[in-house]
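Mods, move this if it's the wrong board.
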Amino acid sequence: MDHYNFFSTRKRELLVLQAQILQMRRWGGGKRPAAMHHFMAFDGCLYSRLDPGLSGNPHQSNVANLYDQACAAQAHTPGFYADYFAGLGTLEAASHLITEGNAQPHGGRSIAMVAYRRLAERVASQNNRAALAHGGGVSVSVVALGRGQASALAFVQLLAERGIVSADGRQCAPPGVPVCGVVFLAPLATPLDAAVVLPANMSGPVLVVQSKRAPLMPFVVRDYADDPRVFAIEMGLHHVAVVGGCDLRGPGAAVLAGATGYLQRCGIPLGDVPLHRQFIAAQVAGHCLTRLGPDAAANLYGGGVPANARS
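Not the wrong board. Structure tokens:
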């Protein structure tokens, strides 16, 4: 492909990315969060905010970016809380598996149990019990990357079956805790993962951002197309570009902008995307295409992926 045709094609793809950002934002809505709302972020395999380089990419993932934006809002939003859980293969996830012991042989399930206990501890605190007693209620939103969606769904299923039960056995919230504002980025599964149906307490719309191609076997793409609550969008990008770890201003920033707009329209008090992570087409065209060149840019758009990049 000559350079003129290459850059002409890439400019058209940038226009498509801009349109997809608007499309994701428009899908936000549905059930509004309760007076006490918890934002739970589940990262993908080998992704950790404490060690971004472990994934083979230079930056943290979009799930970690969304968590940072939630933390920015948490400081000035009463009743809003944010938690983050690193993906399988990280030191944090290994510690969760050790904590849960043999009772939780699947690593993703151990992360879900830690998330559940952390949520129950917070809801059971004296101040939060007083707020719930006045009828404010509790709700949850989840964002997940890759196989992190297996942990997220196991966590949501616990809320559906148990409600919120404190460590001392008190029922702080009944079964069926509402989950609103859900984002799955490039959801993946392996043969070890059970077939998944979205729990009934997960209200729509659910935003699923699919990549053009999944990583190599044994990973397969999760498909929720049959669920009417799901709004799925297929980005013309490789899995690693949807993750967001390979760039700050490029295609990953487009996914971050769309997911942020969607969550904000769902009523989640998420902070705006920081300036240094904002998707600006004019700058992306120069930074991601011209400086990196055709071969590197092709990696972002499905032509290949660095051998050490993970999901």
